[in-house]
Amino acid sequence: MSRGTRAPRTRTGPAVNGDTPTIVAVLLACAAVVAAIIGARAAMVGDDGSDTWHGAVREDVKRGAGLVEDVRFVYTEEAALAFQVAEGEVRAEEARREARQSAGLAQELLEIQAGAQDGVVDTVKSSSELAKDPKYRLDGGGYDVPQRLADTRAENPDLVAIDPDATEAEGADLSYESALMVASTLPAGLAFLCGALAHGFPSRRRWLVPLGFALTALSLLLAILVEVTH
Fold it and tell me: I need a surface site. Which of 103, 111, 186, 192 has the fewest CB within 10 A?
């Protein structure tokens, strides 16, 4: 008695002839895409950190230049003029004192000298805020040059408010965030490894594939946490 022809069996298990199952291909694609997106974001944040550091250097140079210019203006120009005013006032006072003790032509010459010194004082005083403003006069004589410097600095509040240290700290934070972003791609790399192993070892797919997807999700979650907390 002859047997009928058997129908060919259809294999529904793991892929045959080296074909990659759809689920493994999806895992590999997901791991690669997640790693690429996080890596791109890490590169962008790292570039921002580098630009911020460069900005801190520029701010430090700008702040230093502003301070040097203010110090030069107050101590080299205004303070020098104020010294001339103080010297002229002293010379005028001494000439008048000697005139009071003299007579005749000597007295007239001393009074002329005192008047000339007064003229110098009036001319120079108009060119120096330090010498012109009474609030900078010290009770014991002289001028409050540090206060004048502080007031000069306050005339440019935006320049005084420059804080390169804070900008540098911001750049450091961005660089740290970039490093954390790069670190968050490690689970995605392990997920890609799981996908490759699942392709080569079909008997391990039952746990390698779920583990790969879990690692991919973990990588994405870590990247989101880094983005939210920084």
Answer: 103
